[in-house]
Amino acid sequence: MGAKPAAAEARRFNEVASHWDRIFLRAWIVGDRERMLYQEGQVRPCSTLPALQDALAECEETFRGGTVA
Asked: Can you give the pTM of this predicted structure?
């Protein structure tokens, strides 16, 4: 598995809850000294908020003791 981009900043859910369905996520890379769009997508099609919360809760439970092989 290769390196994955990570955000330089994050927002608290209560700051974005009212417009969750209108959020776009973008990832940029720098190549040849030029900033280029690497990935872009709207949050809404990814999943519903309750589904994401359920998945996160499941991951937290699975990985609570460490990495699972």
From this structure: 0.51
Backbone angles phi, psi at 65, to 5 degrees: -85, 0
Per-residue pLDDT at 2: 63
Which candidate, 1, 18, 13, places its Cα nearest to that of 52?
A: 13
How many beta carbons lie within 10 A of that of residue 44, not counting itself? 13
Which ranges constitute the DSSP H helices of 1-69?
Answer: 13-16, 43-46, 49-63
Give the residue among 46, 48, 28 at the shortest CA–CA distance from 38: 28
Summarised one tens digit per residue, pLDDT across range 14-52 is 898 888 888 888 888 888 889 999 889 887 766 677 787
One-letter amino acid for residue 46 of the chain:
C
DSSP H or E stretch at residue 26? strand 24-31
